[in-house]
């Protein structure tokens, strides 16, 4: 009864392995490596491979019989696997169709959920109501278990907005906040990441004395310091930094990675925390945090159409010009608005250059530049163009 959903999920996983996920250039490639090498560090060596084998067994069970979701959930937790069942869409992984919502910037990564269904979009109806019933009970069982370590990150979801969802005011619009910091804290955090999220310095000190790696990533690729920063636990973050925690986060992360403590602080515009971490990194590394304006894909598509139209209008002039590389430089303000434009070098046809710049100002949309502290600043955005129709000799 689950055959169609499982087969398509398997196919999508194969496609994902070949092509990767696309969030930002280079980011998911690093996250993919971290998924295999680092994200299982909170458990035992080889946990990622054990996950894959267990997921294969579950998919086979869903294809050949009607497995008990409660028994399957308990079996997974007994081996230390607390991932929730999810569905894969072209937009990423979601657990909301199965009664759970996880709050992580950028959403869930493939290795952080047990993907059992593939659909074309998040709103599409599931392929099987029985599959939804299985996954919903599975997730409810996991989240209700006293051993579940992520109850402040993933929680039951009925499809209706919840009050805690508004806690994302700590982050700029368009980003998902991390977790639900306002939920009741456990009396005794069970691991170093939970202790960091709850700001329990006494527990952090005890776990570090017991030999826990201060930069070890959890299932989500987050180091203890990354969680302390994401939850705005200044005393815990300060303690971890004093103990040698890295502003770059886990060993497979770089300073510019999305889940590094420094990047999280920048996203939150937490200037005091950035200043606290700055002495721990080199000036060159700090400079790499600066971001230039970035043109949106839809605007580039519209501009390319305009460029094609203008080439037709000015064909008689362009046919006399050898093909050459030009840079269209647009001044972008802190709100992402285009203010001015120039073409370097110019084509020699002033009307064409002016018309091209005007279209660029009208149709291009930009993500503004940000300084190393994450503050939007004015800067020049650039597009490289190839212009001229005359063949080279």
Automatic annotation (TrEMBL):
Keywords: Signal. The keyword Signal applies. Residues 1-19 form the signal peptide. InterPro entries: Ankyrin_rpt-contain_sf. This is Ankyrin repeat domain-containing protein. The lineage of its organism: Bacteria, Pseudomonadati, Pseudomonadota, Alphaproteobacteria, Sphingomonadales.
């Amino acid at each position: 009864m689950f055959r169609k959903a499982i087969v398509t999920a398997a196919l999508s996983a194969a496609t994902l392995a070949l092509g990767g996920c696309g969030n930002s250039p280079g980011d998911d490639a690093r996250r993919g490596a971290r998924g295999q090498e680092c994200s299982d560090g909170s458990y035992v060596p080889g946990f990622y491979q054990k996950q894959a084998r267990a997921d294969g067994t579950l998919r086979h069970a869903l294809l050949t019989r009607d497995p008990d979701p409660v028994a399957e959930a308990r079996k997974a937790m007994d081996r230390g696997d607390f991932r929730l069942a999810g569905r894969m869409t072209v937009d990423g992984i979601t657990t909301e169709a199965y009664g759970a919502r996880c709050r992580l910037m950028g959403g869930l990564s493939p290795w952080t959920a047990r993907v059992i269904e593939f659909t074309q979009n998040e709103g599409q109806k599931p392929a099987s109501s029985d599959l939804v019933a299985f996954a919903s009970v599975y997730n409810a069982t996991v989240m209700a278990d006293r051993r579940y370590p992520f109850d402040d990150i993933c929680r039951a979801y009925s499809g209706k907005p919840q009050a805690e969802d508004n806690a994302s005011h700590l982050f700029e619009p368009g980003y998902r906040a991390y977790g639900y910091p306002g939920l009741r804290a456990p009396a005794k955090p069970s691991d170093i990441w939970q202790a960091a999220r709850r700001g329990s310095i006494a527990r952090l000190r005890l776990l570090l004395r017991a030999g826990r790696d201060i930069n070890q990533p959890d299932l989500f690729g987050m180091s203890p310091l990354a969680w302390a920063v994401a939850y705005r636990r200044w005393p815990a973050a300060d303690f971890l930094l004093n103990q040698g925690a890295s502003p770059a986060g886990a060993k497979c992360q770089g300073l510019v990675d999305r889940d590094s403590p420094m990047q999280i602080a920048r996203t939150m515009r937490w200037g005091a925390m950035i200043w606290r971490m700055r002495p721990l990194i080199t000036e060159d590394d700090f400079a790499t945090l600066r971001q230039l304006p970035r043109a949106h894909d839809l605007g580039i598509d519209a501009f390319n159409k305009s460029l094609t139209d203008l080439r037709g209008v000015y064909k008689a002039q362009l046919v006399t010009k050898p093909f050459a590389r030009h840079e269209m430089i647009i001044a972008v303000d802190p709100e992402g608005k285009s203010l001015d434009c120039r073409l370097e070098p110019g084509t020699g046809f002033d009307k064409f250059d002016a018309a091209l710049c005007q279209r660029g100002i009208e149709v291009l949309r930009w993500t503004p530049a940000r300084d190393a502290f994450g503050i939007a600043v004015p800067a020049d955005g650039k597009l490289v163009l190839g212009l001229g129709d005359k063949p080279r000799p």
